[in-house]
Specification:
about 375 residues; binds ligand MTE; binds molybdenum atom
Length: about 375
């Protein structure tokens, strides 16, 4: 693998060698094309090189589950709303569905997406580029449920808790089982775009995606979009649960002090779907480079620049469709391929807040938020 001007030689690896620990045989692929990263718990990757349309078909949407999948019964399911509220609630599935629902496209990206390209390797599921997908979600705004429960003055956060449980093995750990849970600051919880979703792409949620009801938090890493939602707790103190501050957190330097901060908003990022790493493309011919780009809340993608010469020169790609905040934007770039040889393609996105993908990995991000520009090496022949 050729050295690149910015000092990393990853991504160019083929699927098999990018697996690292998964071994030479490579991962299993399901009939839908999903790549099995782990089967127990279920962790399945969208084959990103098969990106076609704006909406990811449900059968191809990545799955990230930490513990055994809870099989919940619709009739017995209840959503409890408690804590710092005037009127604690217990909603049945029918009661929730009687409330006004909205439908919006939202991209979920796992904060560990792209982890297999880090060198040296870091802990966690070894995702390539497909722990990201975009679906149309239908659900009741969380804000409407919170209004019913009447949030007390002095409330600061809203914790969403799933029905799935585990006993942690690593220290520090509390005694006994814990649920998967994450909090949102009250202002984010009241943002009308945050949904308690009961449908995905026009059908009931599949069990792996959180049946019967999950949170969908646009613009935030997937971890906040709690599946198998059964409890909402409004708190008067910030929540410091395991998946809030120990895991799914990183060190941010504040006044020179590394401080533990929960992962929240997605960082600006683009990925090339085609050509795929290791692909051969015909020489001296037109080739449509194709991918997707996304960013965090309150911003849209403004441009995607593409380099087909390892970063020496850059040209603007074309953004496709319309911008939908919280959802990815597809893009393309018409490449006239050169004569035979190895070529390195790069894509770099910029959002409406002027934030551009970094060329270098920030080591403080440890095993999350992998957004630096990654090379895709292809053979022109
Ligand atoms: N209850 C629960 N919610 C969860 C998880 C989980 O393991 N349990 N995983 C989270 C993570 S890390 C991600 S990236 C998204 C993935 O959602 P998906 O499986 O529908 O793609 O769900 C989030 N919500
Ligand atoms: Mo995730």
């Amino acid at each position: 693998v050729a050295a690149l001007p910015f000092g990393h030689a990853l991504w160019a690896a083929t699927e098999a060698s990018a697996q690292g620990a998964a071994g030479a045989a490579g991962p299993t692929t399901l009939p839908s094309g999903l790549i099995v990263r782990e089967s127990n718990p279920v962790n399945l990757e969208f084959p990103f090189s098969r990106l076609e349309g704006f909406i990811t078909p449900t059968s191809q949407f990545y799955v990230r589950s930490h513990f055994a999948t809870p099989k919940l019964d619709r009739a017995a399911w209840r959503l409890r709303v408690e804590g710092a509220v005037e009127r604690p609630l217990e909603l049945s599935y029918e009661e929730l569905l009687r409330m006004q629902s909205e439908t919006r496209p939202v991209t979920l990206e796992c904060a560990g997406n792209g982890r297999s390209f880090l060198n040296p390797p870091v802990r966690g599921v070894q995702w390539a580029e497909g722990a990201v997908s975009n679906a149309e979600w239908t659900g009741v705004p969380l804000a409407a449920v919170l209004r019913r429960a009447k949030v007390k003055r002095g409330a600061v956060e809203v914790v969403l808790e799933g029905a799935d449980t585990t006993e942690l093995k690593s220290v520090p750990r509390p005694a006994g089982p814990i649920h998967f849970a994450r909090s949102l600051p009250l202002a984010k919880a009241l943002d009308p775009s945050v949904l308690l979703a009961h449908q995905m792409n026009g059908a009931e949620l599949p069990v792996d995606h959180g049946f019967p009801v999950r949170g969908v938090v646009p613009g935030w890493y997937g971890v906040s979009s709690i599946k198998w939602l059964t409890r909402i707790v409004v708190t008067e103190q910030p929540f410091n649960g395991h998946f809030q501050t120990v895991d799914y957190a990183y060190y941010e330097r504040r006044n020179g002090l590394p401080s533990r901060v929960p992962l929240t908003t997605m960082q600006v990022k683009s990925e090339i779907a085609r050509p795929a790493a290791g692909e051969s493309v015909p020489a001296g011919a037109p080739y449509r480079v194709f991918g997707a780009a996304w960013t965090g809340d309150d911003a849209d993608i403004r441009k995607v620049e593409v380099s087909t010469d390892g970063g020496r020169s850059w040209s603007e790609g074309k953004l496709l469709g319309k911008s939908a905040r919280g959802a990815w934007r597809l893009w393309e770039y018409d490449w006239r391929t050169p004569s035979a040889g190895k070529q390195t393609l790069l894509a770099r996105a910029t959002d409406s807040r002027g934030r551009t993908q970094p060329m270098e990995r920030d080591p403080d991000r440890d095993n999350y938020m992998i957004t630096h520009v990654l090379p895709v090496q292809v053979t022109v022949r």
